[in-house]
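Contributing new records

If you add data, match the layout below exactly. Sequence lines come first and carry their own label; structure lines follow with theirs. Keep one chain per record. Anything else will be rejected by the validation script.
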Amino acid sequence: MSTTRSVVAAAVLLAWFAPAVSAQTRSSFTGTITDSTGAIVPGATVTLESSDMVGGAQHVTTNDHGQYRFSDLPPGTYDLTASLAGFQTVKRTGLRILYGTTLTVDLTLGMKGTVETVTVEGKAPVVDVTTAQATSKVDSDLIQNAPVNADPRNGDETIFSMSPGVNIRSAFGGARSANEVLFDGTPTTLPERQGTNAIVINSNWLEEMQVVSLGAPAEYGEFSGTVANFVTKSGSNDFHGLLEYRKVPGSWISNNLGSLSPALQTRFQPAELLTQWDTSAQVGGPILRDRLFFFTGFQYIKNSTIAPGTIAPSGQKQWRAIGKLSWAAAKNVRVDGTFQRNYVELTVGPQVNQTIEVGNDNKEPNAVWTGRATWTASPNTLVEVRTGGLAYEQTIDPRTGGRDGPPSHNDVVTGIRSGNGNTFRFLDQDRLSVGASVTRFADNVLGRHHELKAGVEYNHLKFYVESAFPSGLSFTDRSGVPDQVTIWAGDVQRASGNQTKLFVQDGWRVTDRLTLEPGLRLTVNRGSTPTAGDVYSTTPISPRFGLAWDATKDHKTVVRAHYGRYHEAFGTIEYQFTDTATQTPQITARVLPNGQFQEINRFTPAGNQFVDPDIKQAYMDQYLAGVERELFTDFSVTAQYIHREFRQLFNWIDSRSVYTPVEMRDPGPDGRAATADDGGLFTLFNLTNPGNERRVFTNRGHRRYRAFQLVLQKRFSKNWQMLAGYTRSKAEGNVNNQQVDNFGGVTVTANPFINPNNAINSEGRNILDFPHELVVRGSYHVPVAGGFNVGASYRYISGQALSRTAVFRLAQGNTTVRVEPRGSLDVDATSQADVRLDKTFPLGKDKARQLSLYVDVFNVTNQGIPGNYVEASGATFGQPQSWVTPRTYLISGRLSF
């Protein structure tokens, strides 16, 4: 603790005495005021106004270099005015700025003549030439006007995937659970790991989604995928509201199973939609004009669907509510606070290749909140204080007979799961974070200008879980006959954690056009459990260095280069298993013909699960080089190369088990030995000392990601907008990038180090490797027949890198082995187009009062392909495991005011 206090104190002192600091998480306007001869104009008054800005208009005076700056701004549309006695007043209106962006707007004051004020509308720059960050921003215009997934459960994932390079939550080669998700700038991922269950936001409540990963400065950390910041809407001086109802009529869903064989068409009945609708309401406005704004909303969701290949429905009932206040507490003090409450009930029916009794019922109550206060202590000093938290629960109960119901059965030959859900579980997790930063500005210190920000953040984590098999048993069958059983009475695990984050980040304007961004981040992670006490300790240091060159005098082209080290998130999953006092042994046994069990192996957690005392925090080194150019008003193009090296990845090893090689023949795709499709011999490994396994959580393995990316973005103006991106990439290594793979595992698909059988064919393409990805989203306002909108989305994604596995009967029990290199199973690419048609009718003279009727058509071409395939040898090998949703129509009505 003494080390932590010393580091915190050092960071606070550095922040206060440093010559300058600049905020990265909010937006800024900056620029230079000159006269008609090009000479700088010090002492000019610059005014910034917006109905979105709590506290009213802001005023600054240009410094000796003719420069001005407005910082800590919310996203929105602003008017900028510059004036000085003896000169014309110049006004720029309709300047749109997105979250976390600094826009450079230079103004020229002519000599006062017959025209006293010159007004120029719009034409805000779209390229931030002051930073090496290549941040993807999806604003509310695109979110509202492009079609969004018809399934409310996946709406947030659809919005997340609107950013090029992000697929199925795998961002730039990272694992699906390697992303930090922020709610108005505050961490809201689950304390156990980076799960995003709690932060599902109605798209109507979003002002913008900001994806920060490429070139992220030292303020951002604890991720190896990306950081997604969901920025919610705020109130303003104008009252605005919305009422909306959305429904998918059950008869408006197509059949896209035509490409299946007659036999599979019989088994994969067409999708059946029993009910799917949601309704929401929201309103925002002033409580005290210019001083106190509010925004609030409520949504209710209900749906029930029978997916292709399943025999019972899966359903969802959910409500969520949000409230937000923005307050100008004093002339130089701003306070914001947001609270969201969410309650979900899920009925998860049997999936493909499961019988009707398989499934579970889930309940997930949760809440997230965030608070932020800023104090402009002086024109050169900004102090920020943040707090936020998360409270999350999840209850998963088997559908058949509850926790004492029949055990589950998984048949390795037929591929059928039956009997019951595999496990039940109760989770209770909490996160509390508090932090502060100091931002200061200075000129003429080792260059033209410095923008330095230093901050500290503290997180406290709490975790509790109880889980077990129904009836304490889980069977593996062969052709309907029980072959093996795992006996496990269940576990209870408790853990807590404390994390202190410190960072210093400089924006050093070496010249008017060259900015260097050195930064350093230090994180102190400490974790404990009731059984092991203080058991987890890492102190990673993350250096960052970026370069931004404003290549042209018009501030329309920036060349970027950046190197950064990003460490994996700290979560209780990295040590919670050491709470072994309330964990029970897992026994593997053969099922004898008489129904009795013969033990063949046993793992006892107590005394056999440890954290490596020398463990290091896993990390990713990222290299970025690119160029962004504004081609014409509101339109930019970005070309960039991304290189990522994942090192010291978390994984498990077994330090005591002894194996001996044995030759066995691949049973072939049918999973049956001694048949015509049998493959070649494999060297497998029998366990010779069962019951002696000693698991150690440590650092093993690697992954590499390389990509070229081209992104085109057009903000909404002149009736159209677009976000398009093409990514050519490769993700490979001996550690996969699926869910939780970044935190280790013991299965064949996750961990090649726990035993030598897992190492077979472990090196190769990651399963979530998408060599080609093309995303195009946009909308166009057609100015005929009173006007209507057309929105569209197209997405092409290469198929996943799957391969065949087989189950072998070894001494230690049935063991799954990857018998072919990853990527050898041909998986279809996804090529899907969605369309939205929207007609708006004005209601009265108030332009904000209108009625919108729209229809979304998802999967317009009714593409019919599997979403995934069965990898396991057996009767279902190579068959679809899920199916792309067929053409579906969503009809909606929206009343805005």
